[in-house]
Amino acid sequence: MTISIIDSHMTLGAKQPSKAKQSKAKQSKAKAIMSDSEDYEYEYDESDQEAMDAGSGGGDEDASFEYTDDEDNQNNDEGEVALENAYYNAKGERDSGEIDEARETFESVVRMEVEQNKKEAGVATDDDDDDAMDVEATTSKLLAPLKFHGPWSYKAVKQLVKLHLRSLNCDSAVKDYERLLRIASSPDAKISPNAVEKGVNNMLDRVASLINNSSGSSNSDASSQQEALAQSIYDLTLKAFHPTTGIAPNERLWFKTNLKYGQLLYEMNETAKLQLVIRDLLISSGQPTDILEGTTASSSSAMMTDSTSTGGTHVMEIAALQIQLYSRLKDTKKLRAAYHRAMSVRGGIPHPRTLALIQELGGKMHMSQRNFDEASQAFFQAFKSYDEAGDRSRLRCLKYLVMASMLHASSINPFDSHEARAHRDDPEIVAMTNLVQAFHNDDIKSFEKILNKNEGRIMDDEFVREHVADLLRTIRTQVIMRTIGPYTKIRLAKISKSLNGIPVEDVESLLVSLILDRKLNGRIDQVGGVLVKQAQGAADTGPASSDKNAGKQVDVGSVESRNTASIQRLVRALEHLTDAVANVGPKTSSFQQL
Q1: CA-closest candidate to residue 16, choices 76, 77, 66
Q2: For residues 545 and 542, what is the distance between their CA atoms, to the nearest angstrom?
Q3: Burial 90-101 (b: 16+ CB within 10 A, else e)
Q4: Which of 7, 241, 337, 388 is deepest in the core (most CB within 10 A)?
Q5: Backbone angles phi, psi at 32, to 5 degrees
């Protein structure tokens, strides 16, 4: 007897997990062939058999289907939606100016997520042993990961820190930032390293901007509080991500945080603390802690070996901090060593802004040593690097490049390069463009007019002001050489007139410098106020050789010769006076003998 039946297993289960499985269950049939010996033989569709085998895994027949309860998933979805709604409601309150309400709502997001995660883990919601909601945590309890916090807690606490920074609530900002780090380090939160690094860098940038904005403030108390806030934030970050002792070791983030901290200390003029930060960075990168040690052959070869890719980049980033420090301390020896170390690195790929900073300070170092040609090259490279980084500092370096080119008395106009030509019409550069044009045209009146009127705020730059005297001396020298060119004798008053009426004493000083530098072969008649040029190769480059010319013409071959001639005249006069006094008679006046 043959009976067609429906497999009872296909009708079991209060709920089917999907429509596909429901259709398979309805189509699944078996034919039972009952023999007289009551033996049964079941025949299944192939697809049903594969599904049952896959579901059962070789186990009991009752396990041949997946029984799922959608209620848990539904609760999880509802909890996620509630957290998302609460978070964005808090942001809406923040944007509408309801700051206190926004803080409370952000805190409720943290509480909601902690309660949900505890419930899922089977932990009583009133169990506070995990320190889950420890808002009043202090550095004495630092740093332990917070349990049962998730991504929404991380986002909410990050917004709380931003609110505290905006209202300059320093104590609350430090406490919540500590809580943020403890959440980020918790495996329960499941925050990706990229998200953590991005969030931390944003916080550090906000703190640095607070310090920079308060640098010109007259409120010393507020400034000191903000500096203390910045140091606390950076200290917490460095402890949390320390490569060996941190709760969330992250060498890359620790190194970059140290670099940011060092830059902040430089801007705060905390040179002692900056030296300690640089020392930590050097030790972590395997570099000698004393910059002068790097000048030895062994240290240099070791540095060159390690200076590939990341290692070379780290060397240049540390060198940028060192160059800034030694430049401020006026330590020329260490400054030169740090600069040459950075420039000798091969294989490093620093940020263009880092490279530009090194080259800019190197250009200033060359300027202080009056190596104007090398300074021009360094400033040009710094200008290109700033331009590549899209940094407005490129205009500052372009000004320095123009100044170095003029001091070098170069006939090449810096704006002839296509990189600089694009900025010649910029409002900050127009004045420098006019200055260069006046310089190359030897138009000293226009040159001095631009400087005196401070066109384009040229004189607002301290570095430019330091070299204004050199600029004026350079263009005045050029004008002198052009003025005296066709003459063999020329009055100093005429030269003074061509130099926009400067005192004759200044004219004489410029002429002496030209003669000392062997750019001019001549003598100055101080009595007659005349410059007498000599033919090339003419003799008499030493002191005055006769008493006749000693009182009228002064050989300015050297400063010592002028002083010697004056002393000799004085000595001869004293000897003459002594002889006259010795030979005077009782009725003869010494003045008559003289």
Answers
A1: 66
A2: 8
A3: beebbeeeeeee
A4: 241
A5: -100, 125
Q: Name residue, tokens 């140290």.
A: 258
Q: What is the mean pLDDT of the chain?
A: 77
Residue 516 CA to residue 532 CA, distance in Å, equals 15
What is the tally of helices (H) and strands (E) in the chain?
26, 5
**Cα 259 to Cα 344: distance, rounded to the nearest angstrom:** 21
How many Å from the N-terminal Cα to the C-terminal Cα in the chain?
A: 167
Round to whole Å and give the CA distance between 274 and 329: 12
Task: Give the model confidence (pLDDT) of 204-231 as tens digits.
Answer: 999 988 887 776 555 677 778 888 899 9
Contacts of 203 (CB under 8 A, 6+ apart): 158, 161, 177, 180, 233
78 exposure class (CB count in 10 Å sphere: 0-12, 13-18, 19+): exposed
- Quick one: 411 exposed, middle or buried, by C-beta within 10 A (0-12, 13-18, 19+)? exposed
Give me the helices (H) in 185-329, please: 193-214, 220-240, 251-267, 271-284, 297-306, 310-329
Structure tokens at 263: 């830059």
Q: How far apart are CA 10 and CA 42, in angstroms?
A: 14
Task: List pLDDT tens digits, range 380-413.
Answer: 999 999 999 988 889 999 999 988 988 887 778 8
Query: What distance in Å separates the CA atoms of residue 459 and residue 471, rounded to the nearest whole number?
Result: 12
User: Confidence band (pLDDT; 50, 70, 90) for 320?
Assistant: very high
- Residue from 197, 203, 171 nearest 185 by CA: 197
CA 87, chain centre distance (Å): 35
Residue in 212, 130, 209, 143 with CA at minimum distance from that of residue 175: 143
Which DSSP helix (H) or strand (E) runs through 33?
strand 30-33
pLDDT given at position 363: 94
Two tokens, residue 527: 């009595």
Per the structure block, which two tokens stand in for 140?
């004495």
CA distance 150 to 159: 15
Distance CA 71, CA 92 (A): 31
As a whole number of angstroms, the distance between CA 288 and CA 304 comes to 13
CB 378 within 8 A of CB 340: no
Q: Which residue has the tokens 């990961």?
A: 145
167 CB-side CA count, 13 A? 16
Convert the pLDDT of each residue in 38-87 to its tens digit.
444 444 444 344 444 444 444 444 444 444 455 555 666 788 899 999 99
What DSSP state is assigned to residue 587? T
Q: How far is CA 117 from CA 68, 114, 264, 394, 503, in A?
A: 21, 5, 39, 52, 86
